[in-house]
Amino acid sequence: MTETTTQTAAAPVKRSRWEALKNSKAGVWCRSLASDYKEACKEAVLGAWEKPLKATVYVTLLGGASARFYTSPDRSSLEAALLERSNQLGLLSPWIRNATSDGHVQTLVKVRNEGRLRHANLGLLSLVYCGNYDLDCALYEARCSNLSTPWLKFPERLLDVGFAGRWWILDSKMQDFDVNEDEYKHLPAHMQATSPPSVQEVERNEKLHKESWLPLSMEEEEKKDEQMVNTKEEVVSEENQAEQLQEEQTAN
C-alpha cells in the first residue's frame, strides 16, 4: 500500500494544452499586453469622466479626421468631375462660356490626354499636379532623378486640391461658367456689376407671379370695365372743355 502511494505521488501531473499555452512565453506576453490595454482603457475612461470637455474635443478631432480620410477624393472622382464639367461647357455656345472656366478645364483635359496628370493621396486631402513626362516615357530626361523638377516649384505645377469629397479649385473655377465677362467690358463700370435683389423685392415678385396665375372673378372684371368707362368719360369731358375754351377765345 505504501509503495503504491509513493509511485502515484512521483508520477508527473498531466496538463491540458490550454494550460500549457497559457504558461508559455507567447501566452505570458499576450496576457501582459491585454492587461496593459485594459489599464490604458480604464485610464482613458476615468480621464474622460474627469475632463469631459477635453475628451469631447479629442473625440471630435478624431472623428473629423476619420471622416475626412474616408471622404478624400481619388483619381476616379477627378475623372468623373472633369467629364461632368466638360459636358456642361460643351452644351454652351463658345460665345457665352466663361473664359476662366473653359481655360482651366481645357488645361486639365490636355494634361490628362498627355499622360502628365498626377494624383497624390495624403490621407486627409488629395493633390493633383502636372508632371513633366508620361509615366511610360523612356527618355533619359524622364528617368534621370537629377533632372527632375525640384519640389520648390511644386506650387507652380499644382492643379487642384481634393478635400471633403470635393475638388475645390475646379469648383471655384466653374462658378458662373455660363457668363462670358468679356461681353461686358465695353459697358461702364457701374453697369458691369449687378447687385442681387433684396428679400422684399423677391417676395414682391413672387407674389405678383402667383397672382398672375389666379382666375379673374366677374366682380373684378366689372370693376375694371367701370374704371375703363370712367377714364374714357373723363378724357371726353376734358376734350369738350378744351374745345369750348378754344371757341370762346376765338369768339372774343
Automatic annotation (TrEMBL):
Residues 189-252 are annotated as: Disordered. Residues 242-252 have a biased composition (Low complexity). It comes from the Eukaryota. One of its GO terms (cellular component) is TIM22 mitochondrial import inner membrane insertion complex. Pfam families: Tim29 (PF10171). The lineage of its organism: Eukaryota, Metazoa, Chordata, Craniata, Vertebrata. GO terms for biological process: protein insertion into mitochondrial inner membrane. InterPro entries: TIMM29. This is Translocase of inner mitochondrial membrane 29. Residues 201-212, 224-235 have a biased composition (Basic and acidic residues).
